Amino acid sequence: MPLAQVRGVNINYKVLGDRGPWVALSPGGRRDISGIETQAKALADLGYRVVVFDRRNCGASDVVIDGKESEYEIWADDIHELLSQLGALPAFVGGSSSGCRTALLFALRHPQSVRGLLLWRVTGGRFACERLAEEYYGQFITAAKAGGMAAVCDMEHWKERIAARPENRNALMKLKPERFIEVMSHWREYFLKGADLPVIGASELELKSIKVPACIVPGNDNTHGRQTGENCFPSTMTSRSAPGKSGTKKPVRWPRCSAISSSAALHRNSARGAQSNCFFEAAIFRDKPQSSRRLSLSTALTAARACTKARSSESVLMR
What we know:
Layout: E1 3-6, E2 9-16, E3 22-26, H1 37-45, E4 49-53, H2 71-85, E5 91-96, H3 98-109, E6 114-120, H4 126-153, H5 156-164, H6 167-173, H7 177-192, H8 204-209, E7 214-217, H9 226-230, E8 241-243, E9 249-251, H10 263-273, H11 293-309, E10 315-317
Parallel strand pairs: 3-4, 3-5, 5-6, 6-7, 7-10
Antiparallel strand pairs: 1-2, 2-4, 8-9
């Protein structure tokens, strides 16, 4: 697979498909390209050009433990530069879990470069913040404190990075443990500060500023809870509640259908549900509960493209 020089870092990437709108997808966790390739291939077969890539510190890309910003902000800017080099902007951007966070930050940092968002397994809440902060950063800090960079290189994640790209061992061993710990601690703090946000990495005000179509597929576990996915959406935010007869607030009801089968269906239902005072002007659709991820993503892109053609900021929640 080709390597791109992105902001001084070698990024491993692949483009699937040779025609159609551009889509960039990121996997969850610190997984490599293989964690998203099946979905990317399915979308390419539907007529999209899909970019998948190993983020820095993942897969066969360079290991670079440095930067004043959060790792996710760095990743978002890397994606923007990669897509710019490929002539792929503006693009639909999406991903699962950590890839979802990266996509949200992409939209916030580069609003003119995103056509729509595909967000699945959205992450939020204190449990997720504390668990992932330890998984992504805390365990590596502990290893560096106990045994220096040699101990870090012996950990499974970094062993895999070295196997995929042998130069990464030198990059790690040249780092002073103190600097490694400093950067990892800074990145961990970003996670811990997100415990009370609607989703990790974005405040309510920031979510409200996003004006592009989005499709959200909530998760179904403690780290990727359904409520977190719905928190991206106006129907479940407190600002989208209306006074009831007793003076209490009740959720605003939005139109639903069993599935999105065409652009016309999206337009017909969203026209009935569109309202202005919300994070995303949206219609909520109910997909089949047992839908495969492939179906969800293809449906998501159909919806996002339809929203784009309608020049709206409508969004779709796949339940």
